[in-house]
């Protein structure tokens, strides 16, 4: 189902939005300004309405970007005006320059004629990411799925596959990852300690004893048979072609990094836990040299909070926490946004873009985007500094 509106309607919508917001005329200066409308000038403007080629605000929230054969493909959640439940599905936009985006339509629509489907209209489909499998020639999408009418209790991962980056994607199934598996690297002693944990003894949350039990695997044990909870998520393909599914698990208390199968369509059973009990979500993973970095957020619903950051010498860890990478006005609230992806810019040595969403739960379709270049200090630690607007040309030497 492709719900593109006509180009005329899109232009009218943009004109009306601009009129209502009393947006002044802009200069053709090629700069991106966050939070405002911008012209076709190669500049990223953070927090602004971001019109696509038809003049309508890009609707691809909680998304990620894939580079493939000369084009970038931006996948995200289609947000409606009054609900964050999925009424349309997952959208895709394409671009050659990261600023001018063409609407490629709905690449994974919700199901409208079968209320028993996992992705029935009204379910929750969040944070879709797509990776390309060189071995199979397939495009693989994973996303956080909540079943219709069940709130956020299902905590499942959905997977779909396509022959082309613009779809259509064929929905395969949903699951809770790594059923029956214990974390990689756990010893027999670790497993035995986990087996002694009884949920009834920890009915009261947030006590020191409860926190210790969480770190020792209280929820890993609870969910072992049916698979681990999976909410906010990320996909990462390493230089050796191995792919990983990173997600908030254990009641959003602990991150899991789970290896995918060779075809990227299932899990291998190998996974590690990161920051047990630390309440991290919205993971965004990237690699620079021999160091793996992950930017996350705390768990405060739709409200922004201070970003966290971790590093490791291997995807398997050990992961070390660092202070927030954000610098500038409102850095303590991640510039009013939440991480969703870190994009390595194709053809630019050492240039990464921190992608984040400014959620607007009262009007979901009006959520905005914050894209900022990542720089690195003398010690190699990432820095995300606020810029009202910027251009890739600002980094022409990289």
Explain what you see.
With 398 residues, the chain is mainly beta. It has helices at 7-21, 188-195, 208-215, 218-223; strands spanning 33-34, 43-46, 61-68, 71-77, 89-95, 102-109, 124-133, 138-146, 156-162, 170-175, 233-237, 243-249, 254-260, 267-274, 281-288, 291-297, 308-312, 320-322, 326-327, 338-344, 352-358, 368-376, 382-385, 389-391. It folds into two domains: 7-181 and 224-395, Glycosyl hydrolase domain, family 43 (Tachylectin-2, Chain A, 5 Propeller); 182-223, no CATH class. A five-stranded mixed sheet has the order 19-23-22-21-20, with no helix packed on it. Strands 3-4-5-6 form a four-stranded antiparallel sheet, with no helix packed on it. A four-stranded antiparallel sheet has the order 7-8-9-10, with no helix packed on it. The longest helix is centred in the first third of the chain and has 15 residues, at 7-21. The relative contact order is 0.12.
Note the topology:
Layout lengths: L6 H15 L11 E2 L8 E4 L14 E8 L2 E7 L11 E7 L6 E8 L14 E10 L4 E9 L9 E7 L7 E6 L12 H8 L12 H8 L2 H6 L9 E5 L5 E7 L4 E7 L6 E8 L6 E8 L2 E7 L10 E5 L7 E3 L3 E2 L10 E7 L7 E7 L9 E9 L5 E4 L3 E3 L7
């Amino acid at each position: 189902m492709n719900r593109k509106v006509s180009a005329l309607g899109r232009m009218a919508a943009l004109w009306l939005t601009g009129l209502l917001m009393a947006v002044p005329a802009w200069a053709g200066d090629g700069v991106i300004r966050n939070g405002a409308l911008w012209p076709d000038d190669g500049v990223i403007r953070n927090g602004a309405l971001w019109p696509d080629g038809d003049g309508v605000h890009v609707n691809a929230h909680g998304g990620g970007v894939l580079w493939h054969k000369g084009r970038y493909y931006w996948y995200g959640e289609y947000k409606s005006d009054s609900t964050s439940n999925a009424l349309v599905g997952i959208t895709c936009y394409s671009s050659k320059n990261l600023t001018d985006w063409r609407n490629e339509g709905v690449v994974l629509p919700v199901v409208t004629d079968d209320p028993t489907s996992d992705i029935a209209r009204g379910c929750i489909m969040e944070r879709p990411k797509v990776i390309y499998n060189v071995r199979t020639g397939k495009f693989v999408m994973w996303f956080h799925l909540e079943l219709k009418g069940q709130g956020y209790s299902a905590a499942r991962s959905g997977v779909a596959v396509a022959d082309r980056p613009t779809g259509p994607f064929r929905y395969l199934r949903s699951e809770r990852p790594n059923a029956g598996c214990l974390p990689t690297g756990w010893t027999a002693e670790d497993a035995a300690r986990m087996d002694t944990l009884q949920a009834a003894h920890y009915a009261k949350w947030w006590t020191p004893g409860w926190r210790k039990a969480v770190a020792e695997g209280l929820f890993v044990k609870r969910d072992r048979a049916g698979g681990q909870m999976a909410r906010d998520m990320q996909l990462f393909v390493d230089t050796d072609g191995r792919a990983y599914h990173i997600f908030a698990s254990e009641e959003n208390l602990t991150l899991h990094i789970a290896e995918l199968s060779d075809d990227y369509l299932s899990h291998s059973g190998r996974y590690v836990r990161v920051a047990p009990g630390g309440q991290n979500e919205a993971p965004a993973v990237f690699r620079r040299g021999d160091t793996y970095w992950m930017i996350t957020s705390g768990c405060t619903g739709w409200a922004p909070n201070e970003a966290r950051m971790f590093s490791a010498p291997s995807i398997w860890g050990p992961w070390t926490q660092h202070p927030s990478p954000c610098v500038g006005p409102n850095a303590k609230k991640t510039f009013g946004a939440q991480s969703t992806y870190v994009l390595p810019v194709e053809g630019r040595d050492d240039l990464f873009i921190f992608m984040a969403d400014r959620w607007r739960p009262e009007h979901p379709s009006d959520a905005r985007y914050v894209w900022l270049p990542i720089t690195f200090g003398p010690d190699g630690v990432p820095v995300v500094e606020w810029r009202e607007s910027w251009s890739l040309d600002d980094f022409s030497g990289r």
